[in-house]
Give the backbone structure.
Amino acid sequence: MRIIVFLIGLLGVGLCQAQKQVPDIKTFDDLVYPFATQKISLADGIEIAYADLGKGEKTILFIHGLGSYGPAWKHNVAELQQHYRCLVIDLPGYGKSSKGNYEGGMPFFAKAVKDFGDALGLEKVVLAGHSMGGQIAIVTALAYPDWVDELILVAPAGFETFNKGQKEWFREVITYDGVRLTTVDQIKENMAWNFYNMPKDAEFMITDRIAMRQASDFSGYCHIIPQSVIGMVDTPVFDDLPQVKAKTLVVYGENDNLIPNRFLNPGTTEAIARQGAERIPNCRLEMVAKAGHFVHFEQANTVNQLMLDFLKEK
């Protein structure tokens, strides 16, 4: 049971210890975001919800992690929009973007990211991805090397490797019903795995995740989670990291409870971080103290400064 709780925590779908009033929503569109959002339809009919904030010589496209959504970046775009254009998306199947019977593979998400950029006429981008979003950013950079100018990978998935049996275990443990039937207590416990010391201003994640259960489009969310897990294990990127051309910043929290998986790959977060970062030709690794998997939220000021310094480098 503890293993299952740990795995669902990786989804980023859980939330905090404190109770707050759960919003009454009919669909995911009713969720309250910390920034204004709009939508754009891609050629294949997928509708992407996004925020378009700030302006500057560079455009940063922020990609959230597994089970998460755009608001997870709120502390980062609040600062970075003062210097750059910041686009914060909800991936297909997540947040306010369209739901459907999507296959959820990493190439599927990478294409959606590129199609979104093309729809906005973006010639070059900086991709910032957290967790699964980091793996999507890597796959996108490998598929479209001339489009991705720089990478910011925050606690990225993909640096940790899994054997055939471990991959099959992931497929069996994370299911539609497992997501659908997550209890309130599990939701609270799950998010605790994502932080070293969960801040009070992350409580909105708890109430939002509880509220999602009553939304008419919740089934689409329950579908995309296991599909995303399958997508991650079926598209390993570790062997392809030397092919990444973009200048890259990698940031991990020193106290990340989710990477590496403590039940499958005992070891330290820093060891996983280094084994991946060292394979990327033009890469800088930063380990942040007193921070867990949501390092960019928990230690936002530190991570924001790391991003700004990286983006200002010639």
